[in-house]
Hints:
The complex is a heterodimer of chains A (360) and B (357). Chain A is an all-alpha fold. Chain A contains twelve helices and two strands. Chain A has helices at 9-40, 53-84, 91-109, 126-152, 159-181, 209-231, 233-243, 245-250, 255-280, 287-302, 307-327, 336-350, and strands spanning 197-199, 206-208. Chain A has a two-stranded antiparallel sheet. In chain A, β1 (197-199) and β2 form a beta hairpin. Chain A is globular and about 55 Å long. Chain A starts with 8 loop residues before the first helix and ends in a 10-residue tail after the last helix. Helix content of chain B is 67%, strand content 0%. In chain B, α3 (66-81) packs across α9 (214-240) and α10 (250-263) packs across α11.
Amino acid sequence: xxxxxxxxxxxxxxxxALRIAGVVLLALVIAFPIVWVLFIASKTTFGPAVDDPxxxxxxxxxxxxxAALYFIVASGFTLIFGLMRVVxxxxxxxxxLGGYIALELQRDLVPGADSALGISSAQVSFINWFLxxxxxxxxxxxxxxxxQQAFLRxxxxxxxxxxxxxxxxxxxxxxxxxxxxGGVAKDISWPxxxxxxxxxxxxxxxxxxxxLVILGVGLLIGGALWFWLKRTRxxxxxxxxxxxxxxxxxxxxxxxxxFAIAFFIGSALAGIGGVMGGSFASLAPGxxxxxxxxxxxxxxxxxxxxxxxxxxxxxxxxxxxxFAAAYLxxxxxxxxxxxxxxxxxxVLAIRPLGLFGRPA
Amino acid sequence: xxxxxxxxxxxxxxxGGLLVGLAxxxxxxxxxxxxxxxxxxxxxxxxxxxSLIFLSAYGGMVSLxxxxxxxxxxxxxxxxxxxxxxxxxxxxxxxxxxxxxAIAIAVAVAFVFGALASRSYGIxxxxxxxxxxxxANLFFGQVTSVSGFGGISGIPIPDFFNRTAHSDRLxxxxxxxxxxxxxxxxxxxxxPFGLTLQGIRDDPVRMRSLGYRVTLHRLLxxxxxxxxxxLAGILFVWWNAQIAPSTIDLTATIDVLLIAVIxxxxxxxxxxxxxxxxxxxxxxxxxxxxxxxxxxxLIGVIFLIIVLVSPDGLVGLWDRTVARLRGSSxxxxxSEEGGSAGIVPAGERGPSTLxxx
Lengths: 360, 357
């Protein structure tokens, strides 16, 4: 009943009409939000961008800086997946773990810190923020490596089983973090060097430096990953491993060592992201699930295993969430979550493997 | 070998018959609390897990969106039938009409989810459906006009099924629906549609070149499983009289996956066995001294052990034990469904001999 008996010529022309309709619909879906934000934006808090360039610029910067943080976290996720086909469902838990480790270290480092009230950024020097960041990255990277060696290595090639193992570990990790750090939201303090506003000299925008720092770190990490993967020998091995790990292994490369390095760095990026996220927002139970969602959405949009895809996916998600929250009519701002779904739906409808995805 | 296989089948029949008998007689054997709370919960959680196992075992699709669809049916019922004093639209419809429309809404959403996800396979499918599930949870948490953070309470339940007055009526209703779902899913799996679905599970490329509409079959299977999950959502609301976003959060999504994994991802029976084990652990683990508040750590450890030791869950363990007792030549020998998926997606079991240490 459901088998199609060959292609008739009518179905070809029907397919073409459908295709044109699809392109028109897509153009509308892309064009309408842009026109709305720039010229209409009725009943919103800011009004159209042509009348209020300042708030438009701030929203744009918010979107881009949020995208930088999405990218930091998701690039680790996509690195691990691209090479090993492991979907690390514990990535969100690693994010939270990194944040909590840095938080504890910062409280130990800052003299006279009152652990009950938190630390004001005036007390925090750059080193008191950067050392915890580094330590969190290294420790979480180590935890990820341990998980890979202990549980994932001997299940290679069994994608679903590996995903289930990481889900189990994320449940345990989330519960243990709740036990040790409690259910109250806590945040890491920015160093006093960053905690100020910067005059951008454009449209009177005073923009917080901390968000620009996140953007800078995101660009730095993106650049470093790009250099590593494209310009060094170990990066070359990784790219070859993404394409055909059996062949690479047959050529005498120690692919297991490469896997271990990639898993360490991928997890470390989650930890570093957690420190940035914990400084920028806060750390609490449930944050892990939210960041797993962010990473998943970014890599589904961008295409699994593609670094450039992660960057584009992060940018699209960052802009969509921030503009939806700012430019929906005031009575409807609660619906901004739908736009994440719409973004995902549009991308999946056009490219089931994501914008830069390739078949495995 | 066929003699061994058929006698194993008989053992399974006897065991299954015993379980059904016990389920029917349960109100005579165990306390009201067990019937009205634990066993009723087992039945509707088993139905959601069965919809997941159906998709996974026969379609090769591990869907984490089943809990979202179950929740959407529940929220829809709440919005349609409440008359005030709670969040939501409070439309005050007749409960029967409300149920029909709520199920229709949930199935419609299932088709939208399915249309977007059914072109993806394996682990991509799992990730996409997980994202749908989390977005559904956030949607009901944020959109105050249909629910908001605290959810909908005081959803009217037909007096006949009130579980405080009659502990066993709702239980028998859920048992009845569970039996229908079990038989229905088994039946569908044996129809030409179900057989095609299993062909697609094993080799989508070959099925497509044979002229089957692969994506359409996967979409229809997903919609059907969505209908099953929606039934469980209605039963949940009847049982609980309220529903909140936390009912369908990430933990709940993973709980249902866990139920399927405990029971066994390749056989429908596993859904209710897994659900019973989960409900019992859920209910009694907190009383055990060293567990108390760290209940989820225990759950996680159990999950990990099962995935590592017996990937086909308790049903798989049972099969292997029976096979060993009968002295047949090792586990997996008479695997009835042609070795369907289990935890390894069909496409992954190809000649990937070079991987691993």
